[in-house]
Amino acid sequence: MHKHAILRSTLDNRQLFTAMAAHNPLCARLAAEAGFDGIWGSGFELAASYAVPDANILPMGIHLDMMRAIAAAVATPVIADIDTGFGNAVNVSYAIPQYEAAGVAAVVMEDKTFPKDTSLRTDGRQELVSIETFQGKIGAAIDARQDSNLVIIARVEALIAGLGQDDALRRAYAYQEAGADAILIHSRQKTPAEILSFIDAWTGQIPLVLVPTAYPQLTESSIAESGKVGIVIYGNHAIRAAVGAMAASMGWTPPCRPSTT
């Protein structure tokens, strides 16, 4: 079965799909062999590997080339983190066929302004585009894909921006209406309470996607029990482990820094 169809079938059957973040083919292959269902083509991890902030500093071509290399190295589906789509709806229309040709099974696009700032940065600039603007970007992604099995995931950043659950739900329902296949809801809170509240309130027809980096108390079993979550993404664990291992091999302990993703 084609990678697009594998992920699509898993979501349609409401099975929980687990994806581990990777920043190169070696990391992706280790994740696949460890038993994860798919690979999260993390913008944060790739930026970190280039020693730059996760703030749209790297051009699309660098991320695209890495997604192509990762997709060629593993048999599992790759979910590409395309941030804000590298610009407006016109940029999205250009990017989607490129990523599809690179072999990814899904793309995740967030409703922030371009260039973005990383979501869990305490003093970060978290500015969102209007609902109508992002609906247009979702529509552009849908129109640009060649295979309808390519999964388009809309990432809602309202909780990150401090706009509250009502705004997050309003955006999520609007993005579902625009044709998104799933909704990624993100939170910077250190406990899962905010996310659990959103899950409880969500009555949409498409599955949710979680990135529990900041609230690891939430287990896969409890996530699956909700029946509303289709994908769990483990973001930036591998790059953190790599940094720690490299520093240790050099006899140096890096300073502790706030969590970012």
UniProtKB/TrEMBL annotation:
EC number from the UniProt entry: 3.11.1.3
Pfam families: PEP_mutase (PF13714)
Superkingdom, taxonomy of origin: Bacteria
Coiled coil: none
Keywords: Hydrolase, Metal-binding
Signal peptide annotation: none
InterPro entries to which the protein is assigned, alphabetical: ICL/PEPM (IPR039556), PPH (IPR012649), Pyrv/PenolPyrv_kinase-like_dom (IPR015813), Pyrv_kinase-like_dom_sf (IPR040442)
UniProt GO molecular function: phosphonopyruvate hydrolase activity
Family listed: Belongs to the isocitrate lyase/PEP mutase superfamily. PEP mutase family.
Name the UniProt record assigns to this protein: Phosphonopyruvate hydrolase
Organism: Candidatus Sodalis endolongispinus
